[in-house]
Amino acid sequence: MSSRVVRLASSLTLLLLFALPGVGRADEWPSRTVHIVLTFPPGGPSDLLARALAQKLSEQTKQSVVIDNRPGGSGLIGNDLVAKAAPDGYMLGLPSAGSMSIVPNLLPLPYDRDRDLLPITLVARVPEIVVVSPKTMQATTLAEVVAYAKAHPGALNFGSTGNGSPVHLVLERIKQLAGVDIVHVPYRGAALALTDILAGQIDMTAADAPGLLPYIKAGTLRPIANSDTVRLPALPDVPTFAEAGLPGVEMVNWYVLIAPHGLPPALAARIHDTVATALRDPGLNATLSAQGLALTVTSQPETAAWIQSETKKWGDVARAAHVKLD
């Protein structure tokens, strides 16, 4: 009798579980709209990436995939929303290097990144392209920029997207390795820095490649170096920092797909494989590569290890430069 009661109780428990909203088998995902939280406002490289990926996933799964823009708080607002979501696969996140590997070195988080967030896969690598203003500088190579900065300490300025941003830390790494004094000018976002360098108000800046491509092609900004380890197909003539004579500035921005901790392993694997299929699509790769985005796929363990190694790398640079967030 007792064994029959146990079996009956187990069966009822399973029925109740599958009747609860958001609980189901991995092979049924997705059966309704999936929300991807983007920690940036609409527009810009991150939005381009997120919406192109969402469209491909919608085509692939026959379900709506919606981008939920949640900017602010250095990316922590959006990440916190994902951390506190139900672990059912219907709310995911697409944060960048800033909130996942830089900010944890500089601020207390409203969540435990390693306990509350589950990395699924890297989605894209986005090199920072360092550019100079043709209105204020004659330099056409990194060597010329470094030579001028050494001969004129403090004469050059460099606009970033804010204190502690990837662009700021790329500048600090350049300064550390080249031994130069370049004045940091923090802006609240890429748009303001871009406006001022186009007007000749600042000498240098850097940004995710997609945002700079139109100006580089038009000749209104002059590219100096690419922060990735390989040249970008969209900018084949722009050398990497190593090729330009300053190895060690391999510091790319990147985007990663995350989920709330507690996601069942089978469901996490299902989401990983579904997104990986989309990221390997030739059409999607061709479209985004032309915009300066390099799509990538990693396993869950590789993704977690990448975040840890990037946290140390960016943190070492930030601490050496005594970087503080606004």
What does this structure look like?
By secondary structure, this protein is α/β, with parallel strands linked by helices. The protein has two domains: 31-126 and 252-320, 3-Layer(aba) Sandwich (D-Maltodextrin-Binding Protein, domain 2); 128-226, Periplasmic binding protein-like II (D-Maltodextrin-Binding Protein, domain 2, 3-Layer(aba) Sandwich), CATH 3.40.190. It is built from twelve helices and eleven strands. It has helices at 2-19, 44-61, 76-83, 97-102, 113-116, 142-151, 166-178, 190-198, 209-218, 265-279, 282-289, 300-320, and strands spanning 34-38, 65-69, 91-94, 117-126, 128-132, 157-160, 183-186, 204-208, 222-226, 253-260, 294-295. The protein has a five-stranded mixed β-sheet with strand order 7-6-8-5-9, sandwiched between helices. A three-stranded parallel β-sheet has the order 2-1-3, with helices on both faces. Helix 2 (44-61) packs across helix 10. It starts with a helix and ends in a 6-residue tail after the last helix.
Task: Summarize the SSE layout with pairings.
Blueprint: H1 2-19, E1 34-38, H2 44-61, E2 65-69, H3 76-83, E3 91-94, H4 97-102, H5 113-116, E4 117-126, E5 128-132, H6 142-151, E6 157-160, H7 166-178, E7 183-186, H8 190-198, E8 204-208, H9 209-218, E9 222-226, E10 253-260, H10 265-279, H11 282-289, E11 294-295, H12 300-320
Parallel strand pairs: 1-2, 1-3, 6-7, 6-8
Antiparallel strand pairs: 4-10, 4-11, 5-8, 5-9
